[in-house]
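This section describes the prediction task in plain terms. A model, or a person checking by hand, is given the sequence of a single protein chain and must write out its three-dimensional structure as a string of tokens. No templates, partner chains or ligands are provided. The sample shown here is typical of the held-out split.
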Amino acid sequence: MRDELKQIDEFVLDRVKSSHLPGLSLAAVKDGEVIHARGIGHSDLESGRPATAETLYGIGSITKSFTCLAVMQLAEQGELDVRDEVSKYLDFSIRPEGEPVLIEHLMTHTSGIPALAYAEALIRKSIGDIPEGVPIGDVQDMLTFMADAKDWVHARPGDRWFYLNEGYVLLGGIIEVVSGLSYQQYVTENILKPLGMNRSYFTREQVEADHDAARPYLVDGKGQRHPESYMYGAITADGGLISSVEDMARYIQMYLDGGRGNGRQILGEEWVREMMKPRVDTPGREFFQRSEDGSTLTAHFDDQNSPRKYGYGLGIVPDFFGQRLVEHGGSVLVATGQMSFLPEENLGVMMLANGSGYPLSNMTQYALAILTGNDPDALRFRHSEVFYEELTGIYESYKGNHRATVRRTGDLLQFETAGEHLTQKVPLIPSRVTPEGATFFAITGGARIPVEFATGDGEPTELIYERHKMRRVSALTE
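The expected answer:
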């Protein structure tokens, strides 16, 4: 186990460094015990305070699972039914294609209403990216904001997944109406305290009084870290909780133990199973298809093979090395989080960071692969990541007459030539990857142009782009 944990730490440290994250904390739980917990980097760059397993971060949309857990508690008590119409509890009159929106439609993001981007506007306003946000103080403000959204619907309720932060604000309002408590009070009294999550908060006063709270940072495109703050109270039931990986390890263990945590039954086991039941496909589709012997990857562009489903406030990957993976991520831009666990293995990983950079979901899946004895390079995000590392760099043609850069931009490679007056930037779309090389294509002038890479045998990587043959002469240093 020691070697496996070392491998995980090295992978995470490398990604924290390469994406300029200020700090990150992680915890792994197995069979009811925390088997690994630590911090990497800094919780506060200005003071030099290191990140620890106790450091507090914003968990973003992982809060949605708490919201659904609260709804399920009230359903278990007979106070509501997830099949109730939203209009039974709130002044909500939107009926996509004439049909009512139910509570469970909000829980599964299947109301038929596309994202209205209130949270995106708030976050961008908070960092000075845009001049105006949306003044949402409570659920009544949200209902007013959504009043004209009846003209924005796009599908019948239950038919299609549209991630809707606004819907979770409404769920928070339903919890308040039914329980007679504020959303924050309900979650604190009925989930956080019973689980012993005594350092998980919603308010500025609580966070600033804590002994180990990370400072949130905006990591810009140049890797510069700018101190920012959270939007306390502006984002609540959809993403407002602040917690630590130590506390969140308790939360994960509650799911692994069938709703039981800290010696208490937080939610009945059958109700927990309902939360983790796949109910709708999410839009992402597998891009690479691996050959039976694993040696070749072929890109395909159909709408089949959705690898991820959504339940009640939880995402589900049905086939993670033959097992069910339950997860949810979160981001408020200046802090990110990822919760991932394997119920059948009684194993989970939690990561939190005070910035946005390399996807934490990739890191938690890498860790779970290691901890279950699987090859992390077989993960779908590693399909392209491993190979792209060999392809990025500076390329030159015969005698250096033509020079180009191949760099990674998101999940694609980009071919770039730059001079004093002429610049070209072309995305490369992958087609086929083998141990000997890869074929891509570019679209220029309305035409599909083949792009070929050849690797292996210790020779420099070669690139054929249109008329040019080029060789890799150096790695990128940026």
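For orientation: The chain has twelve helices and 25 strands.
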